[in-house]
């Protein structure tokens, strides 16, 4: 398996590392999903999270396998909270209905 690598210049300042804030940037310009994945639609992504409790509108939700559950099983909850895209593996795609 190969991965696409995207270089990021000028990393933004980050908020404190509390459970709610995580490492969410204070400000960031949206990045179009198709700039990261050429076959994807041009959806603006403004953040990334693994935790549905931390999803904000415009986020890319990352649903990965965990010890007890696959994160993709929570894709609908993430979408309800404002996530605009899901990044997962083939197993997660099946669990998310995608």
Give an overview in words.
The protein is of the alpha/beta class. Helices cover 16% and strands 16% of the residues. It contains three helices and five strands; from the N terminus they run E-H-E-E-E-H-E-H. The protein has helices at residues 33-36, 75-80, 90-95, and strands at 31-32, 44-45, 47-49, 59-63, 85-88. It has a three-stranded parallel beta sheet. A two-stranded antiparallel ribbon has the order 1-2. The protein is globular, with a radius of gyration of 14 Å. Residues 1-19 have low confidence and may be disordered.
N-to-C SSE string, H for helix and E for strand: EHEEEHEH
Percent range of helical residues: 10-25%
Mean pLDDT: 77
The rough form would be described as globular
Strand ordering within the main sheet: 3-4-5
The class by helix and strand makeup works out as alpha/beta
Q: Using the CA coordinates, give the radius of gyration.
A: 14 Å
For the termini, the CA-CA separation is 20 Å
Low-pLDDT parts are 1-19
How many helix segments? 3
């Amino acid at each position: 398996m190969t991965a696409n690598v995207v270089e990021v210049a000028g990393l933004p300042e980050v908020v404190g590392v509390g459970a709610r804030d995580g490492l969410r940037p204070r400000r960031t310009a949206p990045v179009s999903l198709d700039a990261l994945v050429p076959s994807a639609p041009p959806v603006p992504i403004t953040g990334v999270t693994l935790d549905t409790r931390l999803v904000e509108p415009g986020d890319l939700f990352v649903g990965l396998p965990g010890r007890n559950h696959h994160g993709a099983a929570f894709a609908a909850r993430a979408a309800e909270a404002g996530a605009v895209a899901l990044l997962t593996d083939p197993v997660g795609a099946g669990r998310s209905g995608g």
